[in-house]
Design a protein that fits this description.
alpha/beta, 8-stranded parallel barrel, globular
Length: 334
């Protein structure tokens, strides 16, 4: 049933005439800095890893993902040293630009200073000056490998989707050959996606992709994602395991999710990810694995065939958007 090592993974285009992305990608949020909000993350990175130790660890996970056929990697300026780790891995393996499609994001600054219990681990800044500064940093870190540059967690209240100076600057990035995307977050995700879909520059849509949270607990954005998919945007699904809540250590691992997983002889994370992959709007589902065994378990999703009626049973896990995001805001950084 599982995905065999080295077999090809289906791909989807990044917007019109863009590079092709594998249906699953590796997210670097939990691999570029020592702390993150995934449940039990401290057990995945025991102690307080140095930057050099975490780089070696990230390279091992990237190696495993590449060997399995994953060819999309998702980083961000706020993910600690994620961009640098991806670049050092690409260089060490001698992989040319385009072999792995690399996306990154701007709009948050990493402020955790490599501490596990920092007062604040990241700070949002959607200003034009932040875009200019972080774009230069991303280009310096990733060079020719940067293929997709996204606004990080755009929301209606930050005003970034109505900031003409920022949007014009992003259009220049697009016109220079790097695709531009937008990621959204929070209970207002759907409104932000729809706002982004209407933004055009030079007669063409500005954003080639949208990235949003969709999982069995938080489904409030799915209608907007269907609209994005129908409009030709690549749809990237993030947090498909709800920061670990839908994994083996999570509070949602019992009930219908656990029952279906047991019946299939699969892990609960593989079933939750298979449910995301089965959504017709989902072009790419990002994996947040922070260890090689977690990645192997996640990749089993590619071989999971959900039985008739499973989606209906899994739909009972849905929470209201406000409640979901309230609980997410309370997750500790470990």
């Amino acid at each position: 049933m599982g995905h065999e090592r080295g077999t090809a993974i289906e791909t989807r285009p990044l917007g019109r005439d863009g590079p092709r992305l594998t249906r699953v990608g590796l997210g670097m949020a939990a691999l570029g800095r020592p702390a993150y909000i995934t449940l039990g993350h401290a057990a995945d990175l025991p102690g307080h890893p140095s930057p050099e130790a975490l780089e070696r660890h990230a390279h091992a996970v990237l190696d495993a993902a590449y060997a399995a056929g994953v060819r999309y990697v998702d980083a961000a300026r706020s993910y600690g040293r994620a961009e640098q780790f991806v670049r050092s891995w690409l260089d060490a393996r001698g992989l040319p630009a385009g072999d792995v499609v690399v996306g990154s994001k701007w709009g948050y600054r990493y402020t955790g200073d490599w501490q596990l219990r920092a007062a604040r681990h990241e700070v949002k800044d959607h200003s034009l000056s932040a875009l200019r500064e972080q774009l230069a940093e991303s280009r310096a870190a990733l060079g020719p490998h940067l293929a997709l540059y996204q606004i990080h967690s755009a929301t209606e209240d930050t005003g970034v989707l109505g900031d003409d100076a920022v949007l014009d600057a992003l259009a220049s990035v697009r016109d220079g050959g790097v695709r531009v995307g937008v990621t959204v977050s929070g209970p207002g995700q759907a409104a932000a996606v729809r706002r982004a879909l209407g933004i055009r520059r030079g007669g063409d849509p500005l954003f080639a992709s949208v990235q949003a949270t969709w999982n069995l607990l938080e489904r409030s954005c799915e209608d907007a994602l269907r609209e994005a998919h129908a409009a030709g945007r690549a749809v990237l699904v993030k947090e498909a395991l709800a920061n670990g809540r839908l994994g083996p250590r999570g509070d949602a691992a019992a009930g219908p999710l656990g029952e279906i997983a047991a019946a299939l002889g699969a892990t609960v994370d593989a079933v939750a990810l298979a449910a995301a992959l089965a959504q017709p709007f989902a072009d790419v589902v990002l994996l947040g694995a922070s260890t090689v065994p977690q990645l192997a378990s996640n990749l089993e999703a590619l071989g999971v065939q959900l039985p008739v009626g499973a989606q209906g049973a899994l739909a009972t896990l849905r929470e209201g958007a406000a409640e979901y995001w309230r609980r997410r805001a309370g997750l500790p950084w470990t």
